[in-house]
Design a protein that fits this description.
single chain, alpha+beta, two-stranded antiparallel ribbon, 79 residues, 2 helices, 4 strands
Length: 79
Amino acid sequence: MEHTNGYRRMLEMATIPFACAECNAILPDDADQCNHCPTSPVSRDWQGLVIVLNPEMSEVGKRMGVTRPGSYALKVNVR
């Protein structure tokens, strides 16, 4: 039972990073604005995670319109 409580505490401490609503990039933990789309809104309400290492060779990256390596959300919800 003690192990379960420790796991819950870890989950409560974890923060969800922001994702850019324009390019879907997952932002670093300390960022609240996208470097590539500075006027675009960001949100912590996103779904799916894609890591693109080589955008020129990635079929998923091409379909998403990714032009640079990085982590991307499949869907970003902005209210």
